Amino acid sequence: MKNQNKLLMLFLISIVNNIYSQERFDITIEYVQVNGQNQVENCNTIDLGTTSTNNLTFYFVLNDNTSIPPENGLVNIKVKNNSNQIDGTIVGTANISEFIWNGNQAISSVTGTVGASQIETEGSIIYIEYATSSLPFTKYQSCSHPIIKTPPPSFTLVPSSLSLPCGDVTPRTFEVVPSNIPSGANVTYQWSNIGWSTINTNSNIRTLQPSSPTSLPSSVMVTPYIDGVSQTTETCIVSRSNFTTTAGINGNNYVCGSEVYMVDNLSNNVTIQSVSSSNTNIATVSLTSNNEITVTKITDGIVNISATLQNLCSQATTIVKENIQIGIPNFVEDASITGSSAVCQGQTYTYALNGANHPCVGDANWSVSPNLNVLAQTGTTITVSKNPFSADNAGFITANIPDSDYEFSKGVWVGLPNNQSLSIQKVGVYDLYVDRWTLLKANFTGFQYVVNEPFNLTYDWSIPNSMVRNSFDPSLKSVKPYSIGQLNIGVRVLCDCGYGDWKYRPFTVDGEGGDPIELTPIDD
């Protein structure tokens, strides 16, 4: 029994496959009625002419090529704009129901609407398509009608826009270019050009000249007529060009006190309406009768200056000169005095002010400490030597920039170390005994100015009859006397100019037997 069922199923499948191995339906267009008038047969070309909205009715015959009962479906009118369009756009639909079928044939019609914008002048097609409403939803297509249209008459005004510079009265030519005009049609034009003078005219061409160099003429308009029927008015929009200028503000990039700037390349018909400063707290500006701009310093800084220009058509534009340094620039703050860190006896030294080069920086005013003599000076350099009548070791050299708050100083060491500023002292509470260590310190306490850096000094010691232990600090020495008695300890200072004089301090050592012996300064 199972085998019989299987054979029956295979037989039915074979019948279905045989049915669908051929096209089940075919759909044939009898004719197409265009806008209720023209009839087009045999899939010939449908010409819509210049009609913008078109009603098309397709009369068709739908045949079912099988013995299977017919089924319901849809007939769609489809339009393909061009050959690249994969599927057509539906513009009309009709239902195919069981009541339409007469046996295996259905005769009916479908109506759709085609707009002129939906097709090209040529290359478009239109057809009908039957789609079944049940599986496998197969679609069956008729032949295709080429469908064309005739472009409507059109007119183009050349140019379509015009930008007139102020003062320009050059004649301009305007032309109407017609397209798709019906053969034998009478075409006329009506022009409107207020504010223009007519230099030359033809039917579709006019040469016009602006009547005024300063008043903007109206847009040029022309209305075409075909056999007395007005068409769309074409317009050339006339506007005023933006005001541009080659003028510029010319002058230095800095102002020390006041400076005059010129406006170059200023046209005869252009005037300076106003001038301004981007920051009046730094600099002010004024306009002279000769169209010169005077910039006056208020304080140090940077500004932009601008001038507003106006032409004969009352158009304005602004020109700017940017980044003008007013007074002394900030980088001068980083200037410094360069030269030797020491001024030694019997020699001359020259120092220079570096980093202050700017037109607004005048010659520096130099000054030195009393222990220096000035031998020569310029705006940026000074030559000095040691004052032989001064024993002070700390000195300075100063440069002041006139009309500013800028002052630069350099501290220097002067001459050999003065031993009047040198002393020796015992460190801590421990006394000095024979065979016992005690720490001594040399102190140089000479006067220093604020600009002086800490003195880089080395100490040379003279410690007789003792064992001496050095320290990482040359001003410190550890001393262990060998015997009692007077111990005369000396020290001197070494600097870039050499050794100073010795400074001695005598100590007396008292004591008996094995008792600790104290080292006591004589002048205690």
Mean pLDDT value = 90
CA-based shape? elongated
Low-pLDDT runs of 5+ residues are: 10-21, 512-519
**Tally of extended strands?**
45
Please give the CATH class of the largest domain: Mainly Beta
Number of domains: 5
Sheet with most strands: 6 strands, mixed
* Proportion in helices: under 10%
Radius of gyration: 56 Å
CATH superfamily of the largest domain: Immunoglobulins
CATH topology (level 3) name of the largest domain: Immunoglobulin-like
Structural class, please?
A: mainly beta
Query: How far do the termini sit from each other?
Result: 144 Å
| Count of runs of 4 or more consecutive helical residues | 1
Question: In the CATH hierarchy, what is the architecture of the largest domain at level 2?
Answer: Sandwich
- Our estimate of the beta-strand percent is over 45%
